[in-house]
Amino acid sequence: MKIQVHFLSYCILALTAFPAAAQQFPIPLNDTTSVPVLPETPLFMNYNFDYKNRLDSIQKTVPLAYNEHVQKYIDVYSGRKEMMGKMLGLSEYYFPIFEKALESYHIPNEIKYLPIIESSMNPHAVSRVGATGLWQFMYATAKGYGLSIDNYVDERKDPIQASYAAAAYFREAYDQLGDWVLAIAAYNCGMGAVKRAMEKANSNDFWAIRRFLPTETRNYVPAFIAAVYVMSCPDKHQIRTQRSAFLKNTDTIQVNRFISLSTLAKAMNMEDEDLFSLNPSYRKKIVNGSESAPKRVILPKVSLADFALLYDVLNKEEEPEMRVLLASNMVHSVSRRVSVKMKSLFFYHRVAFGQSLGNIANKYHVEVQDLKVWNKLKSSGIVPGQKLKVYSAQDEKSGSRPLGG
Hints:
mainly alpha; Membrane-bound Lytic Murein Transglycosylase D, Chain A; flat; disordered C terminus
């Protein structure tokens, strides 16, 4: 997680701006797409009362502290004027989606700013260790929170599904940690790492336990607070909203058969890429719906005439190329190879008397949720003598990095 990589190039959303002001910090970005690792400063020489007052004025549920660490990231993000202008434009499309999911789990509205520092709100962002999507879910954690990942769909890239999964994680993290700032830290490094830091510092205050957390997480919370600040006060830093290509008015249809997005785009008389960008989770640009499991497709606002065309497309006989894809044996052979490779990465732990999933997770530096996923456990109950599959934390990165990459 601490190996640094360069800024990810985007597939659909051209969010590659890196203004000159931001380059005052000549340090490559790490796996969390927009969070540069900045050096610690022992003295706070540029305390800004205006920033402090603005943070106090926009604070709602999540505490927005102002200190030297937050100041450094305000300098970074306020300097990235083009990038943050694009974030403001994208927020007009994405924030209503995030807000609805967060509200359903009673999560503070401010958490909607997290995908800015996770992925720059790019659904196709993929970190070095494989964290994917707007909310940067790792594979094991994504599966544990109900996201589908197969040869046709990766719901980590689905803005709606991934937002509900992230909200569920935050609900669990807050229930265990009792603090929203700690829950944000846990989103980056895992609840187990935060609990261990709390024990070492004998505190439940992020700023007190910060020195016991991984380097990336120490920067992650200040970066989040800075992103909230800049997005809430863009006019104070001459940042202008850049118009997004996304259409605000959309419709949703349920598809109960296999059909290509290109076919739907043609029926809608729209460019393929425009429809792909609204439905980024379909890996092959194919909607793999069925009668038992229909799939959602987001479309631009549909007129009555468009509905008639869509009805014809969705109710004609299945496209021949779709049947060929279903009959392919290549998928099965690839799956077998992946399965064989994964077998060498895990070992078994035999549960001792008095042990809980939490004890075992801490021992091997993995997450309780990962233990549940790896062993198909429906609850946290285990019994002495039970054998549990544990993937090596060195190879299976979801243990120390449950969500963001």
